[in-house]
Amino acid sequence: MHAVAAPHLSAAPAHRVARTVVTVTDAGGRPVPDAEVAVAQSRHAFEFGNIAFDLIPLANGEGEVRDVGFGGASAHLERLADLWLDVFNIGTLPFYWRTFEPERGAPDTARLLQTARWLAERGVTVKGHPLVWHTLTPSWLDDVPLDKLASVIRSRIVREVTDFAGVIDTWDAINEVVIMPVFEAEPNAVTRLAAREGQIAMVKLAFETAREANPNATLLLNDFNMSPAYERLIEECLEAGVQIDALGLQSHMHQGYWGEEKTLDALERFSRFGLPLHLTETTLLSGHLMPPEIVDLNDYQIPEWPSTPEGEARQADEVERHYRTLFGHPAVQASTYWGLTDDGAWLGAPGGLVRADGTPKPAYDALRRLVKEEWWTPETVVRTDAEGRFTLEGFLGDYAVTGAAGAASVALAPDGGAVEARLG
C-alpha cells in the first residue's frame, strides 16, 4: 500500500502525529483503485492562535480604527491579514464590556459578528474574550444596585453567547478570578459582587449561564496567576460541579522569558486536572524588558518602547523555544500569541511578531517555520492500491485529497482510525 509521510516525522512529538488508512471512493461510495491523488495538509489539529483585534476594521471595510481596549493597527491592514492567516488558525476577538457596550443596550454586536464571520470564512476558529472580568467594565454598570448585578451579568452572557452561537463557540467564560474579589486598581461592580458572593459563585454564574445559552460551547477558566492559589480555585470549582472544558494559562513575559523549566513546571502542575491546557495569552518582547520590581504590568507604560535588533534576535530564540515546549507537551491543546504587530500593542510594548511598519520580525519567521514547515506534512501525490487505499502518516489535522473525480477532506485523528475520502 502506498504511503504519504513527512520526512521529519521521526523527530516530531509522538502525540502530534498519527498514521491511518484512507480509502478513496467516488461519489457513489465505490473504491477508486490504481488512481493518482494529491494529498495536502490544510489545517493543524493544534490551535496556533493570535488575537484578531487588528482585523476588525478590515473585516468591516472601515477606514477608521475604533477603540477595542487596546490593539487596532492603524496601517498595513491587508498585509497584516496575509501574515496572520498564513500562520494562525484560531483568532481571539475582544468582548471587553467597556468597549463592547459603552452605552447600555447598544452593544457592538454587528461589527464583531461580521469580523467573526470573516475569519470563519477563511478557515479560522473564533474565540471570544472574556464574558466576565472585573477590568474594563462599563461605567454604567457601577450604577446597578448590588442585588441586581448578577442578573445584569447573566443577561450579558446569554446575549453574547446566543448572538454568536455557531460562529463563536469558544469563550473565556471568566477571567482572572484569583484576584477578582480583592482587585483594587479601579473600583468596579464585578469585584463588588465577587467580594460578596465569593469566587466559586462567580465561576458558576459564568459557566452555568453560558452553558445553558449554548450547550455546545467550549468554556475556559482563564488566569495569569500560576501559583497554588489558581490550582486551589480549579479544585474547588471541580468539586462544586463546574464543568470546565479547558484551563487557560496566561504567559505574558514582559519581564523576561520563563524558560523551559518554569514553563514545564506550570504545564505539569495544571495538567494533573486532566483538562486540555490553552496558553491563552503569550507575549515575548523584542525590546528592553520591564523592570522586575513592577508587580502589575499595567503600571509600566512609557512614551516609547522600541524594538531593537538585539531584542528581536532574543525574541525569535525565545518564541521558538517556548512553542517547542508547548508543542512537546501532550496536555497543551492551544497557544494564543497576544498580538501580531507592535502597532497598537498592549501597554505599548514591542511584543508583536511584526514591526509597526508591517514587516515581519525574526520571531514571526521562526514561528512560521515551525508551524508551516517543520510541523507540516508536505503535499505529495500518491497512487491508490487495488482496493482504493493509501496510508497517510503525518501531523494531526485536516487534509485535502484531490483526484480526477474531485476532492474530499479527511481528518487525521489521534486514534488513527481508517477514513474515507469520497471524491465529488
From TrEMBL:
Gene3D superfamilies, per database record: Glycosidases
The keyword Hydrolase belongs to this UniProt entry's keyword annotation: yes
UniProt keywords, alphabetically: Carbohydrate metabolism, Glycosidase, Hydrolase, Polysaccharide degradation, Signal, Xylan degradation
Lineage: superkingdom: Bacteria
Family annotation (InterPro entries): GH (IPR017853), GH10 (IPR044846), GH10_dom (IPR001000)
Reaction(s) catalysed by this chain's protein: Endohydrolysis of (1->4)-beta-D-xylosidic linkages in xylans
EC number: 3.2.1.8
One biological process term in Gene Ontology: xylan catabolic process
Keyword Cytoplasm belongs to the record: no
Gene Ontology molecular function: any one: endo-1,4-beta-xylanase activity
Family of this protein: Belongs to the glycosyl hydrolase 10 (cellulase F) family.
Full protein name: Beta-xylanase
Annotated organism of origin: Flavimobilis marinus
